[in-house]
Amino acid sequence: MTAERVLAGLDPDQRRAVTAPAGPVCILAGAGTGKTRAITHRIAYRTLNGEISPRHILAVTFTARAAAEMRARLTALGAGRVQARTFHAAALRQVRYFAPRLLEGRAMPELVESKARLVALAANRVGIRADRTAARDLAGEIEWAKSSLVEPGEYVVAAAKALREPPYEAAKVGEVFAAYEALKRRQGVIDFEDMLRAAVWGIEEHSDVAEQVRSQYRHFVVDEYQDVNPLQQRLLDAWLGGRDDITVVGDASQTIYSFTGATSAYLVDFPRLRRDAVVVRLVRDYRSTPQVVGLANAVIKQARGTEAKLRLELVGQRPPGAEPDLKIFPDEPAEAVAVARRCRDLIAAGTPASEIAVLFRTNAQSEAYEKALAELEVPYVVRGAERFFERTEVRQAMVALRSAVRSTPGETPLVQAVVEALSATGWAPDQPPPGGAQREQWEALAALVALAEEYARTPDLLPLGQAGAVQHDVSLAAFCAELAHRAEQQHAPTVEGVTLASLHSAKGLEWDAVFLVGLAEGTLPTTYAKTPEQLEEERRLLYVGVTRARQWLWLSYGQSRSPGGRARRPCRFLPQLGTTRTGLEKASVAGGSRKAVNRRSTVVSCRICGATLMAGADRKLGRCPTCPSDLDEELYERLLAWRASTAAEQKVPAYVVFTDATIVAIAERKPATPPELLAIAGIGPRKLGQYGAAVFALVGGESLAEPASENSEN
């Protein structure tokens, strides 16, 4: 491999990033624009042309998977000796190497993999009985504080400034933080943040260590720079030691981890703090179709705040594809069933199950999709979380529900019985606790209550092979049996399947087909997002979800959580419906597609699945394009022949009489009366008067040889 060959196949912006001179370089790379390609080719180009030595480069990123991918690409480019590691792996390597010198011959302290046990002990010492979930939340607050360079005595003020919602009163959390630090010292152990701090301390306080580290690493590359926290930035500054040969790459519009201490401020301020920095924008999107790209641009176009200063407008490079589907369902169970059916159809048509993803805001939403996919025998895998019925709090809740069967009077309404049984475990309806893990646990149990509401409304059943409906048992015992059945269905082992994941877990991944579900106010954005900054992060979550799709994108929400429940509004970040074009159609034009469809303000629902239809052609058909057609082929041929002769007689194009979609709709729906014909979108009183008699005759079986009207629509 030669330096010139490394440049082959790069677009002009990527080439500019790769060949930028030594010094500070900031690559603003939108989703799907080839950021990893740009930075690995930059490293390879500089090493192969002899500008720098591979042993003097350190490339850092945030996940072991990303680091491994970077190493593999560098090896393929002939730069396999370059170090590519996560921040933690790089710091651990250095601390271990220098430990004998820094610790005066003592061994490096043991590294604690998880804080939960020590945090629970620390909480107990200050009077808090923290279970596993509460300990996770407290550990999360401590990690945020340490990553933000906040000491225990500074926590209360810092948490208030950052608008944190700690799991307990801030002063108590500060006490737990202090007790945790004391416990670690007493036991002679360190955590991951201590390790990063130790690496910083070793360089800042020991000139010999600083000299050796800086002699080894002279050129730095930082991936996903929008996710750097203050502690990681301080370590990076220590490595640099005032030098400026650093390349950073990031996308402010994908900043979605601020709750962990990550901040895009370093990316935003990079050009200002380094006046001679070269800034390159990568906007050519090679991942997604222009239709998906257009929607992504429309979502992020309305962004406000600091991150919006570096907003990129992507330009789709792939051939045009299908318009994104926007679906509205009566409730979440109906939404889940429709998604599962479409997954099944995509797999049957040749899309690998592993190239399909269902993405949602919270892990508690997964249950409905696990159930719907399991019932259709569609394999699936849950990424970044346990399956719903394998979660500890759900298993404990099911035990509590079974125990309550014996003590609950038979006449107690099901939902009331479930709420009372869960309340006995400490769960309180309408009172979600602060703290991410505890809130997620609360939402999982709230999902069980929603299941009870759905189960209680289920109509009487009609078993296969039996005559007459069977009365639906809505007792607590029957509901427990239903939960056990669902758990059994969803525990089937899978090797490859449809991915179920939260939007946070999906970052950095991509699929051919993506379903973004539950896009309703209160879910996305979550009700817990109250400040403008928090709401903007919710918008960026949707943007990340949209940009995961390569070819096919579905966006949907249920108007209520359960059948008959309270109606909800659609996600505020979805493009608004216009009077002449839907927001999705406008977005597609912005992304490169020129197709536009007029729409009426009336709501048209699919007569097959009940989803609200947005696209003009779908509204005319009266069904989703993916729902089964009941086309009368013989009637369809006669309608085409009649339209051709009528158009020829009137000397107008055939579509002026009726469009193709209208002809298909008539052949499917077979209107026999004026109201039925008028119900087809695109047919008004004028066309009813012109062509109604002919249409009714054709539907009735007649074959018309003569045109039905002497008047042109024009």
Automatic annotation (TrEMBL):
- Would you tell me the Gene Ontology cellular component terms? cytosol; DNA helicase complex
Q: Which PANTHER family does the annotation name?
A: ATP-DEPENDENT DNA HELICASE UVRD2, UVRD / RECB / PCRA DNA HELICASE FAMILY MEMBER
User: Which EC class heads this enzyme's classification?
Assistant: isomerase
Q: What organism is recorded for this protein?
A: Actinoplanes auranticolor
Keywords from the named record: ATP-binding, Helicase, Hydrolase, Isomerase, Nucleotide-binding
The molecule here is called DNA 3'-5' helicase
- All residue ranges annotated as the UvrD-like helicase ATP-binding domain in the record: 8-289
Q: Which domain of life is it from?
A: Bacteria
Domain named UvrD-like helicase C-terminal: residues: 290-551
